[in-house]
Structures are given as structure tokens and as C-alpha cells.
Design goal:
The protein is α+β, with helices and mostly antiparallel strands. The chain is built from 13 helices and nine strands. Residues 36-259 form the Aminoglycoside phosphotransferase domain.
């Protein structure tokens, strides 16, 4: 029976495959499907495939080591209890790294965004984020801490992968140490909440039945309150006029205040800007690493936008202005010359 099922799977596949893990995943899938199609994945080693059968659709995830489907399931349960829409897990084989998931469709928030829809979509995204940050107790969430060591390790991705390995650019050590200290201290000063850690327009799905579904949450941590807000509003994949972003960010600060987490506007703005610099330095480094280590060039085009965020946020911050000058005068021209 197993051999017959495998023959049928290969016969109805869109392409011939010699992928042993994919064959095992499709053989395991505990639903009656007639054909399958690949689904665009994220920047990890996880892979996703859509199963089609009798008017129904499902998603299967292949999460090979070191990915952790157990972590995915645990965080899904945590977020679901807070009222966040996450895919239901329909079946799992944790030992092999296989999950069968509810299908949220293909329409990302990024695809739905335009000048007219932005206020409504960002309003919904911020409402979802508010539930995540105010309905979950960071002390009992059983998530890793976004601590000094992790913040610093993430920052080092930028000089290691983007400057050294991709651009072969030197970096002033003293300038970098001052930058890292300022960014890490700002992050550690902030109230601690549950942090999705990749909360942006590609990971928010516009659902047919209404609302926004949330994906790619398995790396959640307990960390700074501004992290997810800046991920969303200064998205590496889409940019909006600064004045519009400022209105959305202030709206979220006020929502937090009404929920009991009061932060004055100047402090919020400083935290927001510095958190964005930390995140965008990390993201730019990761985009370079995805190309150099993993052979994924698709993220290279997003590096200039990401670095422009860094340069702009550094302009009004005396401690970080030298980094902004270095990025705008040296790094960005080198990046654009490579693309």
C-alpha cells in the first residue's frame, strides 16, 4: 500500500522529484488530496506545500533540524489563547518535523496594501498586535528572553555578513561598539512583552472570512515593546511616508496607554527609532547571508530600503549620527553598485 501511495503521489505532482523528505511528507499527510503545489516559504529552512482535494486545501510544513515544530505548536497555542488568528494544527509528527496546517490562503497584507487600504490594514494589524502584547503575561509565557546577548549577536550579523563577507568593507571598531551599546541599552530599558519577532506585511494574511491571520511566529521571545511595532510600520518590504508612519506609531502608543502600558511620546519615539535601527541592521545582514550562505538572492533588493531606514533614524540621534553617516555615504553606495 505504501509503495502504491507513493507512486500516486509522484504521478500527481507538478514536477518530478527525487526529494526524499518531500516524498516522506506527502506520504505521511493524513488527508485525501489529489495534487499538491509548492508555497513560497520564509527565510528559514522550513518548506511549505499546499494540498488540494475535493474542494479543500491544506498546508503541510517540512521543518527539518534544527527547526522545531514543537516550538511552532507551542507558540501557536500561546497566541491562539490571546485571540490572535494563527493556523490550526490538524496533525503533527514532531519526530520527523511534519505538520498539517489550516490554509490561510495566498493574500498577504503586503499584496493587499495600497494608499487607500493602508489605514484599515495597519489598524487591524495594530489591533492584533495589541492583543498579543497585552493579553499574554511575559512572566508566564515560557519564551526565551530577548536579552543583551541575543541583541548583540543579532547586531553582529551586519558587520559579519554584509560588510565583511559581501562588501569587503572595513568598520571602525570604536564606532561600532558605541553604536551597539546605545542600541542594546535602549532595548533593555523598554517594558517587556511577548514579541512575535517578525511581525510584518508578508507574515500577515488577509483572510477570506475577515481579519488578519498571523504566520511565522515560532521564534517569539519576551522583549522590547516597540520591536513588533517597528517591524510592521517600518517594514523591510514596503515603505510609507514618514508622516504617515508617525501617525500609526502614535496611534499604537495611545492604544497601549489605554491598555495600561503608559509611555510618554518622546521616550516612545526614541525607543521606536533605536529599535528600528537594531532590527534593520540585523535584517540587512540576514539578507546578505541568505544570498551568500543559502543561495537566495531574492532579498538583496530589499537591502537599500532597509539601510535607508537606518540612515534616516540615525539623523536625529547624536549618539548614532556617525553610524548614519557611514551607512549613507559608504555602505549604501557600495550596496547599490552590487545590485
Amino acid at each position: 500500500m505504501q509503495a502504491l501511495k507513493m507512486a500516486r503521489i509522484l504521478a500527481r505532482s507538478p514536477t518530478q522529484t527525487a526529494d526524499a523528505r518531500l516524498e516522506a511528507l506527502l506520504t505521511w499527510a493524513p488527508v485525501a488530496f489529489t495534487h499538491w503545489t509548492p508555497v513560497a516559504g520564509d527565510a528559514s529552512r522550513r518548506r511549505y506545500f499546499r494540498l488540494h482535494g475535493d474542494g479543500q486545501r491544506w498546508i503541510v510544513m517540512d521543518a527539518p533540524p534544527p527547526e522545531s515544530p514543537q516550538r511552532f505548536a507551542a507558540v501557536a497555542g500561546l497566541l491562539g489563547r490571546a485571540g490572535v488568528l494563527v493556523p490550526q494544527i490538524l496533525a503533527q509528527d514532531f519526530e520527523r518535523g511534519f505538520l498539517l496546517l489550516e490554509d490561510f490562503g495566498d493574500r498577504t497584507c503586503l499584496q493587499a496594501l495600497d494608499a487607500e487600504s493602508a489605514d484599515g490594514l495597519y489598524g487591524a494589524a495594530l489591533a492584533t498586535l495589541l492583543r498579543l502584547q497585552t493579553r499574554l503575561d511575559p512572566k508566564t509565557a515560557a519564551l526565551p528572553a530577548y536579552d543583551r546577548d541575543l541583541l548583540r549577536r543579532e547586531l553582529e550579523i551586519f558587520p559579519d555578513w554584509l560588510l565583511k563577507r559581501w562588501l569587503d568593507l572595513p568598520l571602525d571598531t570604536a564606532l561600532w561598539e558605541r553604536t551597539c551599546e546605545a542600541l542594546v541599552e535602549s532595548a533593555l530599558q523598554q517594558p517587556r512583552v511577548v514579541v512575535h519577532r517578525d511581525y510584518h506585511s508578508r507574515n500577515l494574511m488577509v483572510l477570506d472570512e475577515g481579519g488578519l491571520g498571523v504566520l511565522d511566529f515560532q521564534d517569539a521571545v519576551v522583549g522590547p515593546v516597540t520591536y513588533d511595532a517597528v517591524s510592521l510600520l517600518r517594514d523591510c518590504y514596503v515603505a510609507w511616508p514618514p508622516e504617515r508612519v508617525a501617525l500609526w506609531a502614535e496611534d499604537y502608543r495611545r492604544r497601549l496607554g489605554r491598555a495600561g502600558l503608559v509611555v510618554d511620546a518622546p521616550t516612545w519615539q526614541s525607543w521606536f527609532d533605536r529599535m528600528g535601527i537594531q532590527r534593520h541592521l540585523k535584517a540587512a545582514g540576514i539578507f546578505a547571508r541568505l544570498w551568500l550562505r543559502d543561495g537566495k538572492p531574492g532579498y538583496l533588493k530589499d537591502i537599500p530600503r532597509t539601510l535607508r531606514y537606518v540612515a534616516a533614524a540615525c539623523q536625529g540621534d547624536a549618539a548614532l549620527a556617525p553610524l548614519g553617516d557611514f551607512v549613507s555615504a559608504t555602505v549604501l553606495p557600495q550596496v547599490e553598485a552590487r545590485l
